[in-house]
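User: Quick one: structure for sequence A, then sequence B.

Assistant: Sequence A:
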Amino acid sequence: MKIHCPVCRHTNLLNDDDISGFLFSFQCENCQNLLSVKIQVHALNVVKTGRQQTQPSDRKNQVAAFIYENKDKLNLPVLPVLATKIRRIRNNASGTLNDVVDLVRSDQIIATKILRLANSALYGGLVEITDLKMAIMRLGLTVTETLVTALENKRLYTSDHAVLLDFLEKMWRHSLGVAVTSQNIAEQVKYPQVEEVFTAGLLHDFGYILCLQALQQGEGFNVDFNRFTEEEFFNLCFEEHTKLGAWYLSEAGLPPKLTNVVAFHEEIPSEESDNSALHIVALANLLCKKVGIGAKHEPEIRLEVTESAQFLNLNEVQLANLEVHCEDLTQKLAEMLQ
């Protein structure tokens, strides 16, 4: 049995011999906290759908199987492309500032928001700029690429079901918070690929978007979104969302360095234990859950005893400062990206 410690998020593996009954206690092997576990057995209601009979315990696998089997039929989200093109120009010796300006100008909505961001107090906009090229020069190409990535990513969080929009807004804010926090952690620990972990932070929960699309488009699921709670969604999709997200992004041609972060950010396997980018995003994800950026709020998490914080050599004071700074920065950036 796998039991995740709510304090340090370590995965404890228990043998059947370690489980003494429906209510028992054991010590987390990582943080040494005493954990109480209560095993609950729920009766299964059989739901008939046509000729098939399905049980709630199978539904998680059904959502994943539906996505794998209907990838080409589903109206799945289109990944950000503008930021990728900007990155290629930046990495090309013959690429110019004018090339980046032309690319950003090709999307009028993003161009307008880049102008607004360049004139904001967050980016030192003391003198108003009305020219896009001057705005990009003020921001710099790195920040411009980061902001374009965030703006494109927001477009993934939409739905024809009005009742889902508030939930999608929370999910988007969480992805933005993880990206911003990953960037700040990377700078603090002097990890050189800052843009890489920012993008990984934005896409780390991409699997949830796939699950939500499947539930909306799959006729056999018959989900009443007026009654479907956030807790039900996470219970249904949590176990599969990392694998689904990594699979889809890999199919789309994203590099293994990024898809591995998406695949393992919830539970880091031993073979990835020295992956700095993965530890950065995993820690950022926990920090955002701890302070309540997004749909989940888990204040009981102790970041300083997590494996990622220990790997990155971040102490309690540094983590507390990151909590305050990143929560504030995410709020300000989210408001400007609307």
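Sequence B:
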Amino acid sequence: MVLPEIKDVGDMVVEVEAMGVVVTEEEVVTEVVAMVEETEEEEGGSAAEHLARVHGTEEDKVNCPFYFKIGACRHGDRCSRKHNVPAFSQTLILKHLYHNKYMGEEEEKISKIEISKEDRFLREEEFFDFYESIYLESCKFGEVEEIVVCDNIGDHMVGHIYVRFADEEDAADCLTDFKERFYDGRRIDVEFSPVTDFRESRCRQFDDNTCTRGGFCNFMHIKPVPRMFLESMRGEAGDARREQKRKAEEEREKRRAEESPSRSRSRSRSRSRSRSPP
């Protein structure tokens, strides 16, 4: 393979980032070496294009594709590939926040557990109350496009919640606030997540009720939320944001009104001094 001339690794980083992929210089060097070793039979092509194409896929020898797609990896710190937490993202992950009733249970025991209709109803009501509280708290910082709660029970995914905002700045504001918050006596463990499209993250077999791996599946088992419930919350959140904006505007007007008389008196004293005889 004939590689294009590379004068500076930094130039490669800039070229790849221009394609919408955030990488480090170490990743560039590693991928270029891998491309030389594995694609010697090919001719031509851009190393930057190759790096952008394989980023977050099984061909990526540096970054963990599961972490990139799911925001979690069953190997954790022992994974042979990198789990790069993004410096910014529309999506936040709130780790292990939702308390799954089956957490810590073995799969065989779970399959044998029978749940009464009354108990199922109570659990659903508890979940909806939990979901609503997370949704309304998140909406205080901006428009929330989607909230996903994982029903998985594997250690690396149990209780994970993903909050995707329409705007990255709103996600950053929420992250700053949630880092100082507690829930159920525990500090919220929150960070940016690389996941922005849950279509690639979710288990389609679970959606079709055909997943054979149960709660230990490595793809997201997303807890379903009724559409009418979501619509009612969006309306409530919209009303809350409008009320919040109205109060903020009133507060700004009040501050301007308080500052205005003092400025007028200051200008008046200044004019008096200038007119006074020497």
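Residues 1-7 have pLDDT under 50 and may be disordered. The longest strand covers residues 144-149.

User: Thanks, that's what I needed.
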